[in-house]
Specification:
homodimer; 442 residues; alpha/beta; Rossmann fold; Dihydrodipicolinate Reductase, domain 2; Alpha-Beta Plaits; six-stranded parallel β-sheet; NADP (chains A, B); oxidoreductase (chains A, B)
């Protein structure tokens, strides 16, 4: 057997994922070398505090605080520090030096993808970030390579394990949001400050990345309409369940042709994150706990789903190392790195131009003719009703009757729906609008 | 924009998939050119009869019976003829000419993979066959590239839509095999001669390919133990359903360490196709109709599942075109094609060394002490029982009682199980062994 060349690997950051990447690089060195066609030598791990406690026992001499020097001497750089700076500067410096870069930094890729890609293309090296979206699930490479000869029309992703765990708990146990969040925190699925997860920011960064790859056009974080799950109530979940739906936080990217709207529409891609009702028989409805899944609709391939663990040190390390071995192979074989194509010409649509179905819950007066008046109002706003169901409640003591009205619409624009809801609120027979939620998969 | 170079694409075969590939190459020429970085010009379609009726209206001048000449002049060759010859000779000739080859020919790849790969490596060109396994589902590329830094331990695949449709029908409607097969034939999911599907031969070729990629070792068709679904009865399905299981035809490849068996074991990979009981809550149990799915367990990534359409002209064409665009990009960028690694050293295990759980249905005499005697016999053969359930039936007219015994074992070797079943048959209290089925996912 010929002697394999050695490639130096610099690791930036040694948290949950980084520590597992370092462990596997050391423990599985022989296997990785055989797969890559080169020895992958971990040359150092840049951290803020070289004496910090780690999850994994690693050789102390690998640690350094001097990330700059480490990067300058590396063939392959793995960035797992997170945040924008100094990650951005270090990655750009690595690319300029001709090193391939593997990162799991979704915020940075969503914000600065074009700059990073431009630098990688200029240097002819690979920039890859499979770990940035849906952890262990191979999703970016299949979209980029396997579906390169197809046209993706829609992507629906459960890409945040924390919120899926919380919504799944609420669905299973009937818990309120606050209690389900507390349980997620107790089990380590949610952080002490859960804002980035529960407000949808994490999912929004992943939505921007998925949309960019799926539609061959760079979408930035500001193109993503984002709503979190903090306002989803146990009553919403119960009503959805009763109607045969489950509520999931979805990252959605879909091509729409809404040229006839007056809301800045036209052909384009709607990229958004929001709580969404899905029929219980939809493949994504069966994704429980902290698992992730991405459902793709393509013109030729039809429906595809990719399912697996979306977070966790070891699963995410698998995605990082897959990218690393691919990048190493490209260095060994020679030739420029495989890059994404950005040949698309589609624009990001504002949320008002999004077209979807809606679930609307109303607390209404129990009077004759109420349904007719509401139906009339929907018709006037061009929103077609698919299902309308009224449930009468009678308070046993007071003998007062109240009525609950649940409406599922056909596909309509956000703008038309918003106008309809405004008008409905003005009706004297409406006590309150209890929920307005979007529906997919019907 | 700089002028793109033109790559000549030769298509061999124009059946269900080939006709769609031709259509998309013509209709989506601009999109494909942008993705590939080169114009993909369909230079000709080799068929046996140039005047045959096609599913798609294609320019008559593209058709030729002279495949040899077409291949000699091509940069990219798509082989969708099926069968071993002349496909094999044409592919080898294309590779020797420096053309990249895309094929959907599972039988050929399973039988002659090593020869084809050797030729592709020698020429430094890509040989890819995503369409050969699970149709539209991107599965080979994720295994090869995305999981390159991980160690796959087990693959369970529903890779034959015909048999999944038949078993799903039997499960849903209670139909017998023959009726479900007739229904599948009526709907076009099964061929007039369904042998290759229902006897598991199609799944076996795919199992060999999945095992080869997953364990970085070439496994041939003769390494695959294959049992079809023709002997699965409505009673088997009903009993499985009653016990919380569903029966699926699975292609299985798993690493086992059975060094302690006397059956030719040792560390190795068991590759097999057989009807298998899966718990109803297993992700694969929810794969209905003619859909396919591949479930992967890897050391670091954990559990992954890939789901989608496993057959059909247009979905399979998506996989072919994904490979084609990737191959074209490699020609445009230069550098050798990406190849598989065959660094594994694992051997194929004989079926006797396979280790799994079993479901055994027995028709037994309703006498005291029968359960104890059977349990004793299992213990003597080293097969541990997980669940044992006896149901007594009393014939209302004759007043004769019969007892049905259902046993689910813990994991045991095929050899131990076979010996146990033989011994059980010899007991005087046993009327018959009604079914022996393997169980996964417990």
């Amino acid at each position: 057997m010929t002697e394999l060349r050695t490639l130096k690997v610099a690791l930036l950051g040694c948290g949950n994922v980084g520590a597992q990447v370092a462990r596997i690089l050391i423990e599985d060195a022989d296997t990785l070398a055989a797969r890559a066609g080169a020895k992958l030598q971990l040359s150092g791990i840049a951290v803020r505090n070289v004496h910090a406690q780690r999850d994994v026992d690693l050789p102390q001499e690998l640690f350094t605080t001097d990330a700059d020097t480490l990067v300058k001497d590396a063939d392959l750089v793995i960035e797992l520090m997170g945040g924008i700076e100094p990650a951005r500067t270090l990655i750009l410096s690595a690319l300029r030096n001709g090193a391939c870069v593997v990162t799991g930094n979704k915020a940075l890729v969503a914000q600065d993808g074009p700059t990073l890609h431009e630098e990688a293309d200029k240097a002819g090296v690979q920039l890859s970030y499979e770990a940035a979206v849906a952890g262990a699930i191979p999703i970016l490479r299949p979209i980029r390579d396997s579906l390169a000869g197809d046209r993706i029309t829609r992507v629906l992703g459960i890409v945040n394990g924390t919120t899926n765990f919380i919504l799944d708990q609420m669905d299973t146990t009937g818990a309120q949001f606050a209690d389900a969040l507390a349980e997620a925190q107790r089990l380590g699925y949610a952080e002490a400050d859960p804002t980035a997860d529960v407000e949808g920011h994490d999912a929004a960064a992943k939505a921007a990345i998925l949309a960019s790859l799926s539609f061959h056009t760079r979408f930035a974080l500001e193109n993503v309409h984002c709503e979190g799950i903090t306002s989803v109530t146990a009553a919403d979940i119960a009503a959805a369940k009763d109607a045969g739906f489950v509520i999931k936080l979805l990252a959605i990217a879909e091509k729409l042709n809404v040229a006839d709207t007056e809301t800045g529409g036209g052909e384009g891609v709607s990229v958004r994150v929001h709580p969404t009702l899905l029929p219980r028989e939809h493949p994504l409805a069966a994704v429980h706990g902290a698992f992730n899944a991405v459902f793709i609709e393509a013109e030729n391939a039809g429906e595809l789903m990719f399912y697996g663990q979306g977070a966790g040190g070891t699963p995410t390390a698998s995605a990082v190392l897959g990218d690393l071995v691919s990048a190493a192979r490209s260095l060994v074989l020679g030739g420029p790195g495989r890059t994404e194509t950005t040949t698309g010409q589609v624009s990001a649509l504002p949320i008002d131009a999004a077209v979807t179905s809606y679930y609307i819950g109303l607390d209404v007066a129990d009077q004759p003719g109420v349904l007719a008046r509401i139906a009339q109002l929907f018709a006037e706003h061009g929103v077609s009703i698919e299902i309308m169901r009224q449930t009468i409640h009678r308070d046993a003591e007071s003998n007062v009757e109240s009525a609950e009205l649940r409406i599922v619409t056909h596909r309509a624009s956000e703008a038309a729906l918003a106008a309809t809801v405004e008008a409905v609120k003005g009706l004297d027979v409406i006590n309150s609008v209890t929920s307005v939620l979007r529906v997919e998969g019907v």
